[in-house]
Amino acid sequence: MSLFRYFNGMVQQLLLILLIGGGAGCAKTPNIRAAQHCDTVSVGQTNQDGTLGPVSEGKPASGPKTAAKPKPNVVSFEMFIMSKCPYSNKSLQNLVPVVLSLAEHVEFSLNYVANVDDGELESMHGDSEIKGNILQLCAHQHGSTEQWLKFIDCQSKEWHSIPENWEECAAGAGYDQSTMVTCYTGGNGEKLLRDSIAKTEAEGFTGSPIFLINREKYDGGRSENEFGWVLCRAFGDDPPPFCQTMPQPLRFNIIIISDKRCTGRGCDAQWFESFVRNRFLGATIEKLDFAESRARELYESSQLQYLPIAVIGSGVKEDVYGFDRIEKRLVEMEGGQNYAFPIGRVWDPIPEICDDGIDNNKDGKVDCDDKRCEPKMNCRQ
User: Fold this and answer.
1) Which domain does 145 fall in, by range?
2) Residue 50 included in any domain
């Protein structure tokens, strides 16, 4: 394999990962005074272990070694946000109703992404966001969980008006507004925010929103149903009654075909498997090696050249939450019952030798008549 084709394939695979990578978010630079931007908080890059795949802003969410294990039948959901980040607020609009429905079965927490520079509090969306962060922390400290969630839900629906809408939201949630004012103006609110920023920085997170479910990073969909599905899945075999009332995620099969002969980075399908488990919560994943006859048959009907590939049941087009993320890359397979999705862009499992007069890959085309040989110097016209 030529170096040019190898690196060209790697670049194309990287672009593919960026295309279907994690959800959008707000991201700050280490120095909040430097240029700032809203961008995706999951990107594709070459990881330290040499694999390709989506990675999140900051270090892995392993948590403190002494972190307590989740209580039985209780799921921990941690969210790291900026109070005026539109992506955080859209997520909260869909998440809060689920958390309220699951009630005591979810330990929900919010921490804030901001910066302390020379002792001064700074945030991506300015001083109004600092005030919004503080007011939300005061609401958490001085209200019940239900009051706090109602306050957050109210603000998230009118996030452009943060912090000015705090009084309306506090009244709607049944707060004693004088208590909120004392917290906000008396210094306690600022201390709460500094403590929250320290927790976020200890995780290494600089983007918003970031989700941890039982200390595991969640990069999946952000609709109300998707939040409900992933939380209910986290309960294992003992879900709360609410989970029985939810519509079930769409069921379909995905077969990932790899080749054990290829051990390089370009043959790692783990990033795609992780994407599927987060985005298509009803999908059943099966793994095959190219040496298996069934895998070879599926590969040959896929019309794709490189491995790994995914063979996806046609039912995926009914998935309103994830289909649009992969639609442009899908190839309809022979018979129309499945789609093929190109995971890899480097490994050709049946290469054609372009100057030996033999049909090496048994496709009926010899040497330069095979499209695989078109880039070869001896086949160029």
Assistant:
1) 75-243
2) no
